[in-house]
Amino acid sequence: MNDDIQTILYSEQKIQDACQRLGQQLTQDYQGKKPLVICVLKGAVPFTADLIKQMDLYMDIDFIDVSSYHGGTQSSGDIQMVKDIDEDVSDRDVLLIDDIVDTGHTLAYLKELLKKRGAASVRVCMLMDKPEARQVEGIQADYVGFNVPNEFLVGYGLDYQGKYRNLPYVGILKPEIYQD
């Protein structure tokens, strides 16, 4: 797998440093509250697991799975619900955790869904933000680990056709791997 990576952007240590920084900020911002943390499957699992270890507060955790890539390298903009959350979000402070925001379609869909269901607040924590790829105006995360270039990234939860999620770092995938 490592031979398929063109460049490592964020080492395992840099990612852990970002988790610590974000965890401290979230602990401060949610002090005295018990947020419902919603992890977006499958990509955000490593990030969520490392991030919540840095959050010194009570919380509930749930999972949601939506798809917009459908195995490709770009978001189709067509969001499909794969697995819904189990918890009721009514009057809850929701913290949505995902790996990356690029086009913004998935994030816009999820925020709207949670607001319609009556969440008291919806904040978003992303490991990475790819602002150059944004297609939905006004969509942004409240907490961001890294701003990233408009490249195809894999590792630490990010995948290409289900592969590379288990790399401990984030890197740029060599174009010859995904271009036929």
TrEMBL record:
EC number(s) recorded for this UniProt protein: 2.4.2.8
Where does the protein principally reside?
A: cytoplasm
Kindly list the places in or outside the cell where this protein is found, as annotated in its UniProt entry: Cytoplasm
Is this entry keyworded DNA-binding?
no
Pathway(s) it belongs to: Purine metabolism; GMP biosynthesis via salvage pathway; GMP from guanine: step 1/1; Purine metabolism; IMP biosynthesis via salvage pathway; IMP from hypoxanthine: step 1/1
Q: Which Pfam families does the UniProt entry name for this protein?
A: Pribosyltran
Cofactors: Mg(2+)
Q: Which GO terms describe its cellular component?
A: cytosol
Q: Which UniProt keywords apply?
A: Cytoplasm, Glycosyltransferase, Magnesium, Metal-binding, Nucleotide-binding, Purine salvage, Transferase
All copies of domain Phosphoribosyltransferase, residue ranges: 8-161
Q: What does this protein do?
A: Purine salvage pathway enzyme that catalyzes the transfer of the ribosyl-5-phosphate group from 5-phospho-alpha-D-ribose 1-diphosphate (PRPP) to the N9 position of the 6-oxopurines hypoxanthine and guanine to form the corresponding ribonucleotides IMP (inosine 5'-monophosphate) and GMP (guanosine 5'-monophosphate), with the release of PPi.
Q: What is this protein called?
A: Hypoxanthine phosphoribosyltransferase
Give the organism's phylogenetic lineage.
Bacteria, Bacillati, Bacillota, Bacilli, Lactobacillales
The gene name on file is: hpt
